[in-house]
From TrEMBL:
SUPFAM superfamilies per the UniProt record, alphabetical: DNA/RNA polymerases (SSF56672), Lesion bypass DNA polymerase (Y-family), little finger domain (SSF100879)
Organism for this UniProt entry: Neoaquamicrobium sediminum
Predominant location: cytoplasm
Name of this protein: DNA polymerase IV
Cofactor: Mg(2+)
Active site (catalytic residues): 148
A GO MF term: DNA-directed DNA polymerase activity
Record family assignment: Belongs to the DNA polymerase type-Y family.
Amino acid sequence: MFASMPAAVNDPEHGFCRDCLAPQKVARRRCEACGSPRVVHHGELYSLSLAHIDCDAFYAAVEKRDRPELRDKPVIIGGGKRGVVSTACYIARIRGVRSAMPMFKALEACPDAIVIKPDMEKYVTVGRQVRAMMQALTPLVEPISIDEAFLDLAGTQKLHGRPPALVLASFARQVEAEIGITVSVGLSYCKFLAKVASDFAKPRGFSVIGEAEAVSFLAGQPVTLIWGVGKAFAATLAQDGIRTIGQLQTMEQDELMRRYGSMGMRLYRLSRGMDDRQVHADHDAKSVSAETTFDTDLATFEDLVPILRALSEKVSARLKKSGIAGRTVVLKLKSADFRIRTRNRQLPDATRLADRIFSTGLDLLRREADGTRYRLIGIGVSDLSDDGRADPPDLVDVGSRKRAMAEGAIDALRAKFGGKAVETGYTFGRGSRGRPPRSDES
């Protein structure tokens, strides 16, 4: 349809309808063909090709898809009362629920919410389905997380017979029809503004920020719109009288760098809509980790050890499945007053073994088990690489080879008979996370 009308495609007045994809001859609020209000017009609509796609309230959307009776109810995905909110549907968000909010606060804001424990295996499967559909549009897909990615569709118009904007609108319709969830699309000339645009008009959003309007658009926005400007840094800027991006636009690069170091360069460039980062399809994970939040605070070394062991086994299983290994072991602890401690140790060689991850984490934990009450513990590995040279024989620790062989035998039994077929003495009888099972935990 668009291939047969090239002149109209390049005319800013000739937008299209997001519901029926019909081209629009004039700028109106409703589609000329179907009457839908979801019509897109923009002066650079057909010259932009860099997009950010974000699934709307992803975990909650998948659960509502699988349980239609939840469609009009507030849904929170997260742990028990001591956990945090992973995500919440838009009905719950209207009531004040936010991601990363402690669960008890979320339930205070929305007491009638239905809380569902995360099913990561299901979410990963759906995320991969969406990713495969993205990769059918362009090879330049850079995943940011399980439910969002950057896409560069430059040069794909001949392949699709349609401009990138229309291809993206068609993609959004396809995801909704075939997978049963919705996405929001941000279209721009750079990553920064594509990500900003995708946050507009959620859910089912489709927003465009062009190069001509970038500086004027940014001028009225708060400084927190810039990547890396969180609450703490925003407070620092506020002390200096800087609250809007427009104020940053009046400042020279040297002054910003003198005040804020390397962050000053970012403030200078992004405040002016300058972002030359490219979309890279080979965006690999930087770490593999697992963590858990307790129902009640734990303080003793004896209570924390079995949980650390169970999490180490989980990380090891993920590494082995992905064919990768890590050289740096990272221990994470969150105290009862929400202070986070991270400790790490670099190994002589990369590992994928639960035994080495656990023993290294155990040494780090001994120093932190000082009577502090903890609400969360996590373990992970970074400095990832291919596992081809991982875990070479240790001439000093002669028992390491036997432990590695025993771990291989355990892995084989679990693969054949299930994850609970074999347990170590650390976790035996302590539930799925190395601690006594709750009534809702098997």
